[in-house]
Amino acid sequence: MFTSIFGAVLAACFARTTLAIPTISVKGAKFFADGEQFFLKGVAYQGTPADPLINTVQCQLDAKSMEVIGTNSIRIYHVDPYSDHDGCMKAFSDAGIYVWLDLDTFNTTVVQTNPTWTEDQFLAFTEVMDVFQRYDNLGGFWIGNEVINTAGGSLAAPYVKAATTDMKTYMAAKKYRQIPIGYSAADIAELRPMLQNYLSCGSKPDQIIDFFGLNSYEWCGTATYESSGYSNLQAMSAGYNIPIFFSETGCNVGGERTFDDQAAIFGDKMVGTWSGSIIYEWVQEVNDYGLVDYPNGQIYNGAPTPIQPDYDNLSKQWKTITPSGVALATYKPSNSPPACPSATLGWQLDGDVPLPTLAPSIISAVAASIKPIATHHPTTSSANSAVPTASTSNLSASDSSTNTPAGSNSGTGVTQGAGPSSTATSSSPSPSASKSAASALKPQPNSLYKVWTAFVTSSGHGGIVGLAIVTVLLGTALAVFL
């Protein structure tokens, strides 16, 4: 009898909070969920520097409103790994919504001007991965967002690839499910298509990102497939070997947002290559890109009120476009990894350069450790010794006029070069405080972490304390069941 109760208690204590939604996987250039191809219909969901996944009631309100318009994905830029996310993750799971989450925090991202990939950065990334890997509606992780934000920033790319490699190695060592890891790129004409090809080139799968996102705001007003430059984006991505989608889109220049680009993305011309889009953004900020407002002008505080006609316009687009895709069982990938790009005027790396990855012993040691919650506060002051060098001189040509996001979401405030898809007027969101490095999260350990720290720091001799913890937890659980 006691054995049965004890087993039930343990099962209840350690059961996952989200089981009803199928996990997302990658095969070739497609996403799949429950045997069918998956297309993102998403919104960016982070209007403040604070973690948006800790207020369960608010998440339930927003998830319900998102579900109404056909949303199946949200993009989260930064979270606090010390907080409890069970309620919000379940709220979005119940609404059929997947979370696409950045592994970095404001002070641990790879920085273009002084790129590093250090043990401290790695530890911070693992803290986020450890917390969120257990949720079935975790669609994928971002290894970086607009790390490279100018035409001359390609020397930072190996650090992005090194981070990808080490995080995949860590994921395998921890025996987590194979969660896709991707990168979200600024739309910089001088780097097309070199960056997307570099991040997906090579013969070692652990060095290749699993998906590529593009932040593009080029389809504005009455633009067309050709005038917006989407035809160029399609031409550069046809035959790409991994899933590619728009990780930010939704120009608000030229009148009301009609989201006509969604018909192209999910239509015959692009649906064979592109896996959907994420609209920027859910929350209304000063840049006027929001789909909803909240009472008294406060963000994430109460029932969301749709901003019209944008909210309904997006709903109409998504509800009238339902691509069928292909079935997992019959899909046979035929696209091989591209060749690693050679050095050109806009790309300073020559081929498959060595990566500044961490020592395998570091990764295996961290993977073998017991980490019930985040325990490190990383910095990015120390540089890795394996530093790629430029194979060509600095760019002699100046950047072209911009129509891509200026500091969009990454908080860099750097104007990015535009290219064939440019229009005359900038359509990018102004820098948002919610993604600004000046508004870094300051995690605070919760009570469980404090108890655990007391246990571990007692030179490992915490038998009495450990017994007390187990007794309290089991006693509480037994009281609930009995």
Automatic annotation (TrEMBL):
Q: Give the protein name, as stated in the record.
A: 1,3-beta-glucanosyltransferase
Q: How does it sit in the membrane?
A: Lipid-anchor; GPI-anchor
Which PANTHER family does the record match to this protein?
1,3-BETA-GLUCANOSYLTRANSFERASE GAS1, 1,3-BETA-GLUCANOSYLTRANSFERASE GAS2
Q: Does the keyword Transferase apply?
A: yes
A cellular component term from Gene Ontology for this protein is: plasma membrane
Q: Which GO terms describe its molecular function?
A: 1,3-beta-glucanosyltransferase activity; hydrolase activity
Q: Which GO terms describe its biological process?
A: fungal-type cell wall (1->3)-beta-D-glucan biosynthetic process; fungal-type cell wall organization
Q: Which organism is it from?
A: Hyaloscypha bicolor E
Q: What segments bear the compositional bias annotation Low complexity?
A: 389-404, 417-439
